[in-house]
Amino acid sequence: MSTETVNTKTQPGTEQIGALIRVTIDGIPVQVPPQTTILEAANKIGVRIPTLCHHPDLKPAGACRICVVEVEGQRTLQSACTYPISGPLNIKTWTPDVRRARRFILDLLLATHVGNCYTCQRNGNCELQKLAAEYGVDMFRFGHDEKARYEIKEDAPIVRDMNKCILCTRCVRTCQDLQAVGAIDVHGRGDHAHITTFMDHPLLDALCVACGQCANRCPTGALTEHDDTDEIWDAIENPKKHVVIQTAPAPRAGIGECFDLPAGSSVTGQLNTALKRIGFDRVFDTNFTADLTIMEEGTELLLRLKDALLEKKPVALPQLTSCCPAWIKLIEHVAPDCLSYLSTCKSPQQMFGAIIKTYYAQKQGLNPADIVSVSLMPCTAKKFERERSEMHSSGLQDVDYALTTREVAKMIKEAGLDLPKLPTSDFDDPLGLGSGAGLIFGNTGGVMEAAIRTAYELVTGEEVPFEALRVTPVRGMDWMRTAELPIKKAVQAWKFLEGATLKVMVVHGLSNAQKMLDMLRAGELKDYHFIEVMCCPGGCIGGGGQPIPTSLEIRKARSNGIYSEDERMAIRKSHLNPVIKKIYEEFLTEGPCGHKSHHLLHTHYIPRGNRIA
């Protein structure tokens, strides 16, 4: 609603004080800055107003109207999520008219909501279902569509069932505003309005990067990840298969939320126990290949710097990180001219898959074809990444299945296990040891901090003091963060770096990544050497496969959980991981960026442009 229509007549006891505006909500006075919405003001004093289209990460839309309230002096009910406070107001959030309006809206939504709650992935965690229970909906007053109007689309890691869509447009705003991808939009009018891609093309053909942020913010079961749990159960129950799972750090900071624990609760040991009881033959730590990534990616950067500074060769700098598959697919589509800036390193997930079906298979005397390699990831794009044609360097598909945090939580519950009450256990040998540097990969800035911890020691020959391991300039949630690393002295191999200052940058969120690409093309980043890019807000802790709901506060709590666990780790630098040292001694004997590691751990990318993905 425009501010011109807001009634600013002063009500008794609602005078404006200074720069703040005093309003009354359900008889409770509160002072707020101008343009604060009624919903924000209510939240400030603990008055709950129900919402469906609203999400704290997104701009208000006022699409569902479930948040309507009475504003004294206004002829009709107003949506609390979009109503800006520009003068003193008297607001009532609960009156007979408000109750009837909300119930009416719910009845209308349910009339066209096709689907069986019992078989829906969001059963028990559906916002529409929750509100229907709260408002006593025990019958379909306006009937109920039994026949599906739209075909269920399973053409990507994200499954689309628009029969369950309530047109709240959260997914559209997430894709267009938060991520600046724009793969989906509202098409059609009136009764024919529905959310789909341009010309109803398959998602991955429409620039979708499979990040899953849309599914993470969908209030119903209209958007969900493709569920692979039945295939995992089949593999576990097959005595001929050796089933291993690697677990990434971000899910371990979030999975406790699926069992009513606070965000950021550390349940790594309990999760190991749960996965072993479920039936996985080995439980490994993705932090191991995060450490491997630091060795490979850090060496690649130093070699690029050597070519640029010592050999005076034309080199693509700054080097961009390549851990995030959604970010990779985006740059393949929108900036194929910038592909040379990307590190050639695979993600830790894919490095692990390649190592499992080569090094691990040899050590254990296993036929790689009998190994089922599973990953626990915070990300739906990992499902897309594992199927990329480039990810078969072991001679087989390196990673067979990628499970989200939500899928693994479901498996644990199906096995009758209460995660918080389980005893702790360690990861399995030989790939179960990771460092704190690998652990913080789960946070935005974590890859950069891990790289700095190792690069500083390799280049200078001096140990980073324990208290200096917190590289605070690259931590936080600001969309872009920069840091400078002066090299005052260097060992002989890297003497050319002595006196140089390495400039690094951290970016998270695809809309921000695209801003960075614009700066790169404009030549504004020519003085930078290394840039970390993560697709999801907050990095992997805010991944599309993480527990629902998400918000800035939840992501901060998960991030703090990871940093706290890092502080307790015995090994906090990737190059000090003894298993990393051993694999270079026994298997990757030419060292980082050698011929064998290049074959198994590095890859190339595809200039996709507008063609089919």
Our Rg estimate from Cα atoms comes to 26 Å
Strand order within the widest beta sheet: 2-1-5-3-4
How many helices in DSSP terms?
19
The structural domain count equals 4
The CATH topology of the largest domain is Fe-only Hydrogenase (Larger Subunit), Chain L, domain 3
Quick recap of the structure?
With 613 residues, the protein is an alpha/beta fold.
Describe the 3D structure:
The protein is an alpha/beta fold. The protein folds into four domains: 3-94, Ubiquitin-like (UB roll) (Roll), CATH 3.10.20; 104-225, Alpha-Beta Plaits, CATH 3.30.70; 240-288 and 349-421, Rossmann fold; 295-343 and 436-601, Fe-only Hydrogenase (Larger Subunit), Chain L, domain 3, CATH 3.40.950.10. 33% of the residues lie in helices and 12% in strands. The chain is built from 19 helices and 17 strands. It has helices spanning 38-44, 96-111, 127-134, 170-178, 213-217, 229-237, 249-254, 268-278, 287-310, 325-334, 348-364, 381-386, 405-414, 436-439, 446-460, 510-521, 552-567, 578-586, 595-601; strands at residues 21-25, 28-32, 68-71, 78-79, 90-92, 158-160, 185-187, 194-196, 223-225, 242-247, 282-285, 319-320, 371-377, 401-404, 480-486, 501-508, 530-534. The strands form five sheets. It has a five-stranded mixed beta sheet, with helices on both faces. Strands 11-10-13-14 form a four-stranded parallel beta sheet, sandwiched between helices. Strands 12-17-16-15 form a four-stranded mixed beta sheet, sandwiched between helices. A hairpin with a 6-residue loop joins strand 7 (185-187) and strand 8 (194-196). Helix 9 (287-310) crosses helix 11. The chain is globular, with a radius of gyration of 26 Å. The protein starts with 20 loop residues before the first strand and ends in a 12-residue tail after the last helix. Mean pLDDT is 94; it is low at 1-17.
